[in-house]
Specification:
The chain has 59 residues and is mainly beta. It has strands at 6-14, 17-22, 30-34, 47-51, 54-57. The mean pLDDT is 94.
Length: 59
């Protein structure tokens, strides 16, 4: 199991879901995540860290 943190950028909003793009590797794939699982203050372009099965806003 991979326990390393993963960094995402908020690409776009799609209703109750958010499209996230990996920021720590080169990839065009988007990950669709329920908005309720993410910090409420996110905006397009926000950097998120996914670690220990939760998302947090990066400074």
């Amino acid at each position: 199991m991979n326990l390393e943190a993963v960094t995402y950028l908020v690409d776009s909003f799609n209703g109750d879901y958010v499209n996230l793009k990996r920021a720590d590797i080169e990839s065009d794939d988007l990950k669709l995540v329920a908005r309720a699982l993410l910090p409420p203050e996110i905006r397009e372009g926000s950097r998120l860290k996914y670690e220990m099965m939760s998302y947090s806003l990066e400074d």
